[in-house]
Amino acid sequence: MDSRSASALAASRREPENVRGTLAMPVHFALLAAILCAAFALYWATSFILEAHDATTRFGADTWFYTKIADGSALARVGENYHLDRIFRFHPVTVVLGAGWMGLFGWLSGWMTPYHILKAMFSLVGALNVYAAMSAFAAIMPRKHVAFWGIIYAVSLGVWFFSSIEESKIVSAALAAAYIAVYLHLRTQWTRPRAILLTVILLFACLNEIVAGFLVLIPVVDTLMQRGFNLRAGRWIAAHVLAGPLALAVLELISRARTGPAGIHPEGANHASMLLWYVKQNTYDIPALNAFLQRWFLFNLAAPEPTVHFSNPVIGYGGDFQPRLLAYFYEPSSAILVALFAILLLAIFLPRFRTKLAPEARAILSGIAAYVAMRSIFFFIFLPKECMVYASSISLSVLLFLAIPFSTSNFPRKRILLALIATALFLVNGAFMIAPQP
User: What is the rounded CA–CA span in Å between residue 67 and residue 104?
Assistant: First the structure.
């Protein structure tokens, strides 16, 4: 074999290294199906465990609001029932999904309780959330790494926990992940149908949680970084951004039209009154900021310890973690996880392995950073003590900050390191899920 043939053979063997997944098929179909089925089974099984341990209200989750959907005819009872009235004002997408789900599968109540049927819907949304995240990863890294990052995302604490309880937050996280995934593929191959799809996702994301409007910062900043202030390049974004104000107008009309029991209290009347209600009760100082940052960026990915603190059953508060980073070193599994993440960071930043990011990568990271920064600032102002409830919508963004530079680094045996991180994260967060309430 001559040198030219040998070079061609070597190139063909290296080709799979650069194969990318697509938006619809981020990895091989069989592997994708296995991961999504496993995620759904994991989340639904965990929902039984959390309920048995009376742990579904950890971090300030309002699960007792959403269980009312399981009673049937949820949409008809909006305006009459305080709990349904409240969540429909601010999270109508979740309520409509739940009501539709119970309408389709309520007949299964002969074999299981309506509440477990409802929990299955949130577990399914959690699995679809993983699918969206894998599609996002597929846009920025070789296909052979996507499954590992998808599993890491699936077993991260915020995603896992909120996929296992009745709460709107996993719906918000799934819509945010879908938005990021579609945009990452759109920016490499712009088409009108994809731009329309992105706008529809933004509209539903804002209808389920109005602060999802911060997602528009990703294309805005990305486009500015790549093309500067270019009116022609940004025309579609100008139209795209209107989905946020449209969603707010719809939500405020719902608030006025459905003047039920929730509208009497300023906490549930409308978005402005709710914001002011919480801001008046918050404390803003260095300890509050420290606790917020730890819970928002670290505890949302990995539980620092198997149990929570500060629970108060009288008000339905299931507790939260103490803001102590040293807690990660109390258990061998979490200490190993910290060490593995330290290796990942070395692979990203150590000059021996680090590679220079392309301008396109720096632009998208800047857009994602703008989104994370604005969402972080808002929730520190709005509800710093219960920020974990809202943190799962930035889980994918935080992992992309790691995945993008790691995918281009020269670190050897990347898949082994990612597999070890996924395993350690599963063990650490799994221990938290099965731990009984203190």
Answer: 17
The three-point CA angle 315-318-321 to 5° equals 130
Instruction: Please state, in angstroms and rounded to a whole number, the distance separating the CA atoms of residues 104 and 314.
Output: 35
* Ramachandran assignment for 106, one of left (phi > 0), alpha (psi -120 to 50 degrees), beta (any other): alpha
Q: How far is Cα 324 from Cα 335, in angstroms, rounded to an integer?
A: 14
- The DSSP letter of residue 59 is G
Q: What is the DSSP letter of 296?
A: I
Q: Where are the alpha helices (DSSP H) in 155-295?
A: 157-162, 169-186, 192-208, 217-227, 231-241, 243-257, 266-269, 271-279, 286-293
Q: How far is CA 435 from CA 235, 304, 305, 314, 315, in A?
A: 52, 13, 10, 21, 22
Around 167, how many Cα atoms within 13 Å sit in the side-chain half-sphere?
26
Highest mean pLDDT among 82-91, 220-229, 420-429: 420-429
Please name the amino acid found at residue 151: I
Nearest Cα neighbor of 256 from 379, 88, 101 is: 88
Query: 169 with 393: CB under 8 angstroms?
Result: yes
163 residue type, one letter? S
The model's pTM? 0.94
Look at residue 261 in the predicted model and tell me its pLDDT.
Answer: 65
Q: How many residues are listed for the chain in this entry?
A: 438
Q: Please report, for residues 18, 86, 96, 393, 414, the alpha-carbon distance to residue 89 in angstroms, rounded to integers and kept in the order given.
A: 46, 5, 12, 20, 46
User: What span, in angstroms and rounded, lies between the C-alpha atoms of 403 and 372?
Assistant: 16
Q: In whole angstroms, what is the distance from residue 340 CA to residue 328 CA?
A: 13
What's the CA gap between 10 and 7, in Å, rounded? 5
